[in-house]
Amino acid sequence: MDVAVLVDIIKETDKNWRFVFESPLYDKLDFISGQLVQLAIEDPIDKGYYHKRNYSVASWADGSNRFELIITYLPGGVFSEYLFKDSEIGDEFLYRGPMGIFTLPEDLTKRDIYFVSTGSGISPFRSMMNYIYENKVPFKNIKLFFGTRTESDLLYREELENIQKELPNFEFVPTLSQEDNPDFRSGYVHEHYLKLIDKAEDKPLVYYCGWDRMIREGRDHLDKRGFEMTKDIRVEIFG
Predict the structure, then answer these.
(1) What is the spatial distance between Cα 171 and Cα 160, in angstroms, rounded to a whole number?
(2) Is the peptide bond before 98 cis (omega within 30 degrees of 0)?
(3) Could you give the residue ranges of the DSSP H alpha helices within 84-188?
(4) What are residue 53's DSSP bridge partners?
């Protein structure tokens, strides 16, 4: 495994913080947007035993040797408790990656793409959209559906709204499940993209990233509509 140094902590929301790492052994990190890294920390009591967790990379390959993770605080979670309460700038972590196949298709102009996420599951999609924007990658239409409880839980809001202004065929669609707000769509994330799918002539390619329950529900909805795994659906589960 390689070594990464924690160089910044950004408190994006109360329960979702951005952790920026630098890999000092490399001048730059080459990876594909959508991939993940595996972090490892040694157990404070059982020395020699390492806890490992996979996290989607929220940043994109920009020529630097840094990568960013956005992590949700889970009470009692080994990594959550350490990162949110004990970690400090300069701490070293073991990591492996970036790696994985949850990535964009080679040609983005062939069909519409729907990204569906909840919570910190927005990470790979933030990476993908910034990569597309920065590198002027042509695409047909992309919609990013992001489900949260309240407006205060929205991650990377200003950044994604700015990309939406610059790229007319990209739409950022936040949905709030526990707050009535005239500026946003309300309810659960599934209902909003399913309405569009039911009206569409062609199937979009649907990406899911988030909690297992959300992804299972989404896959069930799409199974009933004739969507197939890999061909029409791609998933990244983090819980």
Answers:
(1) 9
(2) yes
(3) 123-135, 157-166
(4) 39
- Sequence-ordered alpha helix ranges (H) in the chain: 78-81, 123-135, 157-166, 189-199, 212-223
Which DSSP letter does residue 46 get? S
**Terminal C-alpha separation, the chain:** 23
Q: What is the CA radius of gyration of the chain?
A: 18
Report the 10 Å Cβ neighbour count for 73. 17
Residue with tokens 């990464």: 4
Each residue's pLDDT expressed in tens, for the chain with a length of 239 residues = 899 999 999 998 888 999 999 999 999 999 999 999 999 988 777 888 888 999 999 999 999 999 999 998 988 888 888 999 989 999 999 999 899 999 999 999 999 999 999 888 999 999 999 999 999 999 999 999 998 877 778 788 889 999 999 999 999 999 886 667 667 676 788 988 999 999 988 999 999 998 888 999 999 999 999 999 999 999 987 64
- With residue 69 as reference, give the H or E element that holds it: strand 66-72
Q: What is the largest CA-CA distance in the chain?
A: 58
How far from chain centre, in Å, is Cα 84? 19
Q: Find the helix packing angle between 189-199 and 212-223, rounded to 10°.
A: 20
Nearest in space to 35 (alpha carbons), one of 123, 106, 119, 112? 123
- Residues 6 or more apart whose CB falls under 8 angstroms from that of 224 comprise none
